[in-house]
Structures are given as structure tokens and as C-alpha cells.
Predict the structure.
Amino acid sequence: MRILLTGKNGQLGRCFLDVASAEHDVLGFGSDELDISDASQVAERIAQVKPDIIVNAAAYTAVDKSEEDRERAYAVNELGVKYLAEQAALLDIPVIHVSTDYVFDGRAVTPYLPSDQTNPQGVYGASKLAGEKALAAATTKYIVLRTAWVFSEYGNNFVKTMIRLAKERDTLGVVADQYGCPTYAGDLALVIKQLCEQYQAKHDLPWGGYHYCGDMPTSWHGFARTIFALAKEQGVIESIPKLNAISSDQYPTPVKRPEYSVMDLKRLDELRVKASQWVGSLNQVLERLK
Ligand SMILES: NC(=O)c1ccc[n+]([C@@H]2O[C@H](COP(=O)([O-])OP(=O)(O)OC[C@H]3O[C@@H](n4cnc5c(N)ncnc54)[C@H](OP(=O)(O)O)[C@@H]3O)[C@@H](O)[C@H]2O)c1
């Protein structure tokens, strides 16, 4: 099938090309080839490619920077999604889109359901929520997968930062009072490919919003501990630094991170896909980073 992929140079974009290109005609575009915040570029590209489905892996993802760059964050995360969705609706093409746990305030004590009250705490989360709403307003044929704590062999992410720091330092402080679910971008990409194929087979999907992330919640400190243990086992790092548990107050950021962004994954059964088994996937990523 013919798939139009935006944001092909990001973590998810690159993983999607890896998992889907061999079997499908994936036409991927970087921001230099298709800027989704430009309505005319969006219309032209979609008309030119004539895809069966659109996968939106493009986003403004600089969480802290978005506080000063509000206009750009909304241009990409809200308007970009709106333009894609409007064109897709005109041509009856479905859109698979990705959103974030940052739409929540992180004050829950049990895993968030897709239907739970949103309350973003910063511009990034608010712009992503605005994108979800713009998508739902423009078309009915959409899937939103909210994900979290994305890592991969590509780009910048927590796993690669921890590996770098382990090579530079003997001691490290990592936040231990924020909980979430690490997610391998390759697992998310595979699920999106499966959804594309389900649509190809049935010309239908159970449209709507879902959560997709790793199966085992942890803290950043717990995530770091697992990264170091596996990286040492695989010979990616020579020694494990002393890992101190610190509080969010000891590591201030311009945007407050959600304390608890664990997402409930039961609704994934409706999509007939499985959650990301992130520890196994982390092992594979470390193998590739060797
Ligand atoms: N990373 C995480 O931890 C995380 C957590 C929760 C949800 N998510 C969501 O997951 C999705 C994928 O994230 P990711 O980690 O793969 O992000 P990423 O690595 O930052 O990639 C995002 C891509 O979007 C492209 N992009 C930015 N502005 C664009 C524009 N105007 N037009 C077209 N492309 C544009 C960027 O291209 P250029 O670099 O060429 O500008 C970049 O390659 C996003 O929707 C994100 O919000 C991510």
C-alpha cells in the first residue's frame, strides 16, 4: 500500500521506514520536503502522492523550548495536524497520528485512560492536545496513539544520554519521583504498520484515541538502572556509574514534568495490537548502539 509519512528523520519516522519500507510503498518526507505547518505544501504533497493512508510522525517535540517558541509549537502540533486532517478528509484518506502523555497533568494515582480528563502543564502538551482536537474536528477516520518516554537507536533520547553520561562520569543523579512507561519507537512503528495493514484488509479501523507505551511502568531512576545493567552486560559501557536517586526539585526544568504519566493500555485490545515490551526492545537498541 502507499503510505505518506511525515517527519521521516525523527525517531519514529526512521523506525517506521525501517519496519514498513520493505513491504509497502512508503513515501517519507522530512520537514525540508514537507513542512506540515504550510497548508499549501500539505495539499500539494497529498495530491501528488495520492496515499492510501497518512502517518504523521512530524511534531515540534522540544518541550522546554516550546515555552518561548509557542507560535512554532502550535503551528506544527496544532495547525500542521489540522492541515493534514482537512486534506485527508477531502480525499477520504485515514490519518494515523501520535500524541503524548503530556496532555495530562500527572496528578493521577492510577493509570490514565484515553478518556480521562486532560490538563496539559506546558505549551508542548497543550499544542499536542490542540492537534488531537483539530484532527477529530476535521475527520472521523483517524487513530491517535498517545505515547511516552520514547527511545530508539536514532536521534536524542534518554537511553543515548545515559550511555554517554556513563562513559563520562562516575556518579550520576537521576530523578526517582516521576513515573511513566518507556516506549521503543520501533515497537510503535510496528504497531502503526499493523494498523495500516488492517486498514488495507478491511477498509476500516476502530477509529479514535488510544494509549500506546511500554508495558512496565518505572521511574527515570529505574529506567537508568535497567539501561546501565543491560549496557554493561552487552559491553556498551565498561562500568556502571554510582546512581543516586534525586527528586524533581533537585532537577528543575522550565516545564514541570508529570509526576505520574502511566497510561492504561487495555483499550489496545480493540486495535488487536500488543504493548511495547520495552526491556527486550531496549536490549535490541543497545545491541545496535554497540
Ligand atoms: N520523544 C518522546 O519522548 C515522545 C513522548 C511522547 C510522545 N511523543 C510523540 O511521538 C511522535 C514522534 O516523536 P519523535 O520522538 O520521533 O520526535 P522527533 O525525533 O523529535 O522527530 C520529530 C520530527 O518532526 C519533524 N518536524 C518538525 N517540525 C516539522 C514540520 N513543520 N513539518 C514536518 N516535519 C516537522 C522534525 O524534522 P526536522 O528535525 O527535520 O525539523 C523531526 O524529524 C511525536 O508526535 C511526539 O510528539 C514523543
The mean pLDDT is 97.
